[in-house]
Design a protein that fits this description.
single chain, 2 helices, 83 residues
């Protein structure tokens, strides 16, 4: 089984000795897919050629593209970049 990069947790929780339930929350990939499917549902509402399975498939395609482009389109600043 291939493990797909999921971007890590979308809403990371602070875990310390007083709070830790072992859950990491939804992945960033799942969050992106949820946002994409919401937009798609509004855009193509009423179309009968789109099934729920197609909505989900395309939502995760968009999420994967968003994850792959994160560092290309908006690189994360590295130490020393502000000099």
């Amino acid at each position: 089984m291939t493990i797909k990069y999921d971007g890590g947790p979308a809403f990371a929780k602070v875990c310390d000795e007083h709070f830790h339930d072992g859950q990491t929350g939804m992945s960033l990939r799942d969050y992106f897919a949820g946002q994409a499917i919401t937009g798609a549902a509004l855009t193509i509402a009423g179309r009968t050629d789109f099934t729920s399975r197609k909505y989900a498939y395309y939502a995760y395609q968009v999420a994967d593209i968003m994850l792959s482009q994160r560092d290309v389109a908006a690189p994360i600043a590295k130490e020393g970049d502000d000099e």
